[in-house]
Design brief:
Layout (H helix, E strand, L loop, with lengths): L16 E2 L2 H7 L3 E6 H10 L5 E4 L6 H13 L4 E4 L3 H13 L4 E5 L1 H6 L3 H7 L5 E6 L13 H6 L5 E4 L3 H15 L8 E6 L7 E6 L4 E2 L25 H5 L3 H20 L1 H7 L4 E5 L5 E5 L2 H15 L4 E6 L1 E3 L3 H7 L5 E3 L8 H10 L6 E3 L12 H12 L8
Parallel strand pairs: 1-10, 3-4, 3-5, 5-6, 6-8, 7-8, 12-13, 12-15, 15-16
Antiparallel strand pairs: 2-9, 7-14, 11-13
Helix pairs in contact: 2-3, 2-8, 12-15
Pfam families: PFOR_II, POR_N
InterPro entries: PFOR_II (IPR033412), Pyruvate:ferred/Flavod_OxRd (IPR050722), Pyrv_Fd/Flavodoxin_OxRdtase_N (IPR002880), THDP-binding (IPR029061), Transketo_C/PFOR_II (IPR009014)
Protein name: Ferredoxin oxidoreductase
Length: about 400
C-alpha cells in the first residue's frame, strides 16, 4: 500500500505554496533568466508574500516601484499606492508596518534625503521594513547618475544595511532581508543597497527559483512588541509624557532604547551570515598582500582588476562586503591578515567606506590603507583605473592605456 503524505500544504493569498526560507533560497531548483536589477526586485517581491508597498517616483528606482505595482495588480502584493512625497512614503509605509504588515519600498538619492527623518523612526519603532536603495548622486551640481554618497548618511540610523553587487545579489538579499529583519530578536529595518543604473538598468543572468513558491507570510504576533499598542515600548516612548518631559527618566529611556536598537543589529549577525552565505566574499589569491576592500559595483570592478594584475605578475584579492551594518569586523580582520596594502575603491567623493575600514582595522592591522581610486557624480571606474593606482603605489610602470 502506498504511503500517503500527511504534510499540510499552505498557500498564501496569491495561491503560491509557502515554503521555508532555506528551501526558497538554497534548495529550490533555479533556472536562468536575463533581466535588469529592477526586474530582479519584482521577482524577489513576487516570492516574498508582501502585504504592502508604497511608492514615489525618483530616478533610477521608479521602474522598480512601477513593477511592484504590477505585482499588486496581479495579486502578489496586498496593498499598493503612491505617496504624496518621499517623506510621505516612508511615513505611510511605517504605518503599514506598525499595523502588522510585511512592507517594502524603494528610493534613490535626493528622495533618500527628503525622507531621512523617517529612517531613525523606523529603527526606533522596531519595524522590520525593507528599503531597496538604488543609490544615485546627491551632490551639487545635480546628477541622476550612480554615486553612493547617500549611504554615508544612513550608516547611523539604526537600520541594517546590506550592499548588493549585482542583480543576483539583489534578488537573494531582498528575500533574505525579510527573513532576517523579522526575527523577533532582530526586528529592525533593513536597507538593501544597489548602485543605480549600473545594476538597476543593466541586464544580466539571474538564477530564479519557481514563482509558484513563496516565503511564509509575516506573523506580527511573533514581534517583540504588540502591534499598534500605545501602552508598551516603543509606542509608549512616542507619547507626550516621554517626548515632552525634561527629566532623567525621559533621558534614560531614550538612551537605553538607542542602545537596544543597535544591539538588535548585532543580533542579526548569525542570521545574515546564514542567509547571505557569509558576511563577506573573497575573490583572488588567498595569500595576496594586495587587497581590495569594496562593496557593490566597486567590488565587481575590483575583481576585474585582480585579473589584470595577474597579467602583471601581481597577486591580489578582493574582500567584498555584503553587509555594512552590522559591519563584518572579524571577517575583515581575518581576510586581510596577510595584507601589506589595502585599497578601498569607492563610488563617492568622501570615502565613507575607507573611514569604516580604518575604524575597524585600527590597531588590528599593520597594512597601509589607501582610499583610492574614488569616482563620483556618475563616473565609471574601469578596472584599468584601479590597476593604475596599484602600480603607482608599487612603483611599477603603468602599461595600461586609460
Amino acid at each position: 500500500m502506498a504511503q500517503v503524505s500527511t504534510e499540510k500544504v499552505i498557500y498564501n493569498r496569491a495561491g503560491q505554496r509557502v515554503v521555508s526560507p532555506d528551501y526558497l533560497l538554497f534548495e529550490a531548483p533555479r533556472t536562468k533568466h536575463f533581466m535588469t536589477g529592477s526586474e530582479a526586485v519584482k521577482e524577489a517581491v513576487k516570492r516574498s508574500s508582501v502585504d504592502a508597498s508604497v511608492s514615489y517616483p525618483i530616478t533610477p528606482q521608479s521602474e522598480a516601484a512601477h513593477l511592484i505595482g504590477e505585482l499588486w495588480v496581479e495579486g502578489y502584493v496586498g496593498v499598493y499606492f503612491r505617496g504624496e512625497s518621499e517623506f510621505g512614503v516612508m511615513s505611510e509605509i511605517a504605518g503599514c508596518a506598525m499595523a502588522g504588515a510585511r512592507c517594502i519600498t524603494t528610493t534613490s538619492g535626493p528622495g533618500t534625503l527628503r525622507a531621512m527623518e523617517n529612517f531613525p523612526m523606523w529603527a526606533g519603532t522596531r519595524i522590520p521594513v525593507q528599503l531597496v536603495l538604488m543609490a544615485r548622486g546627491i551632490n551639487s551640481p545635480l546628477s541622476i547618475q550612480p554615486d553612493n554618497l547617500e549611504v554615508s548618511f544612513l550608516l547611523d540610523t539604526g537600520c541594517m544595511i546590506w550592499y548588493a553587487e549585482n542583480a543576483q545579489d539583489l534578488f537573494d538579499m531582498i528575500i533574505a532581508g525579510f527573513v532576517v529583519a523579522e526575527k523577533p530578536e532582530v526586528h529592525v529595518p533593513v536597507i538593501t543597497v544597489v548602485d543605480g543604473f549600473f545594476v538597476s538598468h543593466t541586464r544580466e543572468a539571474v538564477m530564479l527559483p519557481p514563482d509558484d513558491i513563496a516565503l511564509p507570510p509575516y506573523d506580527p504576533y511573533k514581534a517583540p512588541m504588540p502591534v499598534i499598542d500605545a501602552e508598551v515600548p516603543p509606542g509608549r516612548f512616542l507619547r507626550d509624557p516621554f517626548v515632552m518631559k525634561s527629566n532623567y527618566i525621559s533621558y534614560a529611556t531614550h538612551a537605553s532604547w538607542q542602545f537596544e536598537v543597535r544591539a538588535a543589529i548585532e543580533r542579526s549577525r548569525p542570521y545574515a551570515k546564514h542567509y547571505l552565505r557569509g558576511l563577506i566574499e573573497e575573490f583572488g589569491d588567498p595569500e595576496a598582500e594586495i587587497v581590495f576592500v569594496a562593496c557593490g559595483t566597486a567590488a565587481a570592478q575590483s575583481k576585474e582588476a585582480v585579473r589584470l594584475l595577474e597579467d602583471e605578475g601581481i597577486k591580489a584579492k578582493v574582500v567584498k562586503l555584503k553587509t555594512i551594518r552590522p559591519f563584518p569586523v572579524e571577517e575583515l580582520i581575518n581576510a586581510t591578515k596577510n595584507a601589506k596594502t589595502i585599497f578601498v575603491p569607492e563610488f563617492n567623493v568622501v570615502g565613507w567606506l575607507e573611514r569604516e575600514v580604518r575604524r575597524y582595522l585600527y590597531k588590528r592591522s599593520d597594512a597601509d590603507i589607501i582610499g583610492t581610486p574614488r569616482v563620483a557624480g556618475g563616473m565609471t571606474m574601469p578596472p584599468e583605473v584601479i590597476v593604475k593606482e596599484v602600480l603607482k603605489i608599487l612603483g611599477k610602470e603603468v602599461k595600461h592605456v586609460i
